[in-house]
Each structure stands twice: as structure tokens, then as C-alpha cells.
Amino acid sequence: HHTLLREKYYNDYRNLEEEFYAIKRAALAGKTNITAVAISSKMHLLIANHEFFKGKPIVNIFNGVDYKQFTMLDKQNVRRLLNIAPETKVFLFVNRYLNDSQKGLDNLCKAIELLNIEDGLLICLGEGTIPPCSNIKVRQFKPVSDIEWLSQLYSVADYLVFTSLQEAFS
Q1: Number of continuous H segments (helices) and E segments (strands) in the chain
Q2: Engineered SS bond to 157: which of 12, 73, 75, 92, CB 3.0-4.6 Å?
Q3: Is 55 left (phi over 0), alpha (psi -120 to 50) or beta?
Q4: How do 137-141 and 159-160 pair as beta strands?
Q5: pLDDT digit string, tens, across residues 73-124
Q6: Which of 102, 103, 3, 7 is nearest to 47 (CA)?
């Protein structure tokens, strides 16, 4: 679902991809009652330009977060609960799988090193191992779906960092 990965590995699975493409083309041939769903504007453009969906309706249904579920909490109170000093610069990186190279955690660690922060903390929320981050403390928490706990983690951060090279979602 990442075009960058498709381009990178296409030669490795070209025969399989061409076989599946032919199966998809045959399955969709002559179908008139097809509507595609796009989860981002970029995906909408990709679908609209694809031979399978030319002239077919495309509906945008963006992935969303119910912001009413999350509550911004008092940063200093949450920091006391998590034993984080008030002056610490806290970066938050969230991804289910921390080792996913497309999410750029390794680039984040390199960038933080360049910032040369005296008192910093990188909080990583996700499964996997964290690449070396030489000049910043790192704390890892496992993925959770508890809204109260997530609210605490988001509230404690000074910076919520997205370093993805490419996203499948909007």
C-alpha cells in the first residue's frame, strides 16, 4: 500500500504482481457498479488515474480520530505522575511497529542528535526496538487503546513527531 515500497521491490515480485494484475483486470472487466473508496486526497488521485477505475465513482471517506474522546490534561500534573522533570523537552513518537522503516524513527533519532538537546526525552509508543539515540533519554510504552492513558501520553509531550516517509492513510 506504499508506492515507494512497490517501486523499491517491484523487480523482486514482478511475475507475481503481473499475474495478480491480470486476475484483477479480468474480475473488473465490464463491471459498471463499482465505487472506489479513497482515504486521502492523494489516494483519490491515484485511484482516478488507474485504468481499473477510470470513469468510476470515487468516494472520499477519510480516516479520522474522534477528538472529543481525547482530553488535554495538565502537562505538569501528568509529568509528575510519569516522573518527568518540568524542564525536560519531551518528544512523542507513536507507531504500532517501531521498526517499520517507512515510519522514520531512525531518522528521528539522527535529527534529535543534531539538535543537541541538554535535557530531552523521547517517548516511543509501539512494539519493537528503538534505534540508538545517543544524546537523549528514551522511554518506550507498549501500544494501548485506553483513551485515558493515551491522553496522558499526548498531554505530556512538547512535540508530537511524525517522520513517516510515506503514509497509506490521510
Answers
A1: 6, 6
A2: 92
A3: left
A4: unpaired
A5: 999 999 999 999 999 999 999 998 898 888 899 999 999 989 888 899 999 9
A6: 3
